[in-house]
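Predicting structure from sequence has reshaped protein science. With that in mind, we have picked out one protein's residues alongside their backbone shape tokens:
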Amino acid sequence: MTSLLDVRAVRVLLWALIRVATAPVVLVLVVVRALRPFIVLILLLVTLFPGTFGDQDAEISWLEGLVCVVVLALMLLPLRRVLASLAGWHLRLAGRLLGPGPGELALARAQEQLRIDQELHDSIGHMLSMIVVQAGAGAHVFDHDPAFARQALATIEQRGRAALGELDRIISGIQGHAPPPGGDDPAALTALIDGARQAGMAVTASIEATGLPPAIGRGVHRIVQEALTNAAKHAPGRPVTVEVGTGSGAVTVRVANAFDAPAFPGHGHGLASIRDRVSLLGGTVAIGPAGGRFTVRAVLPLES
């Protein structure tokens, strides 16, 4: 990152030097173009009336003077095109020197790829985890509780359709046509928890946070989503508690569930994405066993 900043500083300095060097030329051309009618008029007066602006030692014939005036006027006509060409050259040069360089473009592409990967993992991964949980529950009771199995299949269908819709939304977001989910809408978080319950998870929720800034709201949504996905993968069938509240200029998110220590490593892409997201929002996060429960606790400041 430091090398990129150094290269950019050199490019900005080079641009400033070029501007300083070309500014007088451009200024002269602009002034000449603005005064072009007066220059032609003065030359015409000097040619037609030699004594108008003082004595002249050399005598110039009327025809020669008129030819000189016409030639000079024709030479001044392309000034507009010259100035337009200079302006275009300045814009192209500014794009090269002040715009992103190859290193910055590569870094931006890598960051965008990371964002897309995280978005796919957080949203599609969560829905697929819910489908796996529901499929396992349906298969387990298929023989002695066919009604529940049918309900599980219906939920799997709904989750699958939702996953396809989420995939379409992500693709639209990449193309710049759709905003990410969550935001400051508490209904999105409620729908997320309801979806986990429909997938067979025993979720107890307490949501006491409204009017969150969009970025914070999306962060809360993703943290809860990933924590529920983690619980579904590593502690299926165990009750989960979700708490979201505000106080002291921050919003606190806590998701906890019972777990079997050997079966719950507490590592992986999902938990790493929570840490990355919280860090990006300037918050703090603690993930791990606490009081016999595996807990994800994040605190996000409401003001940066």
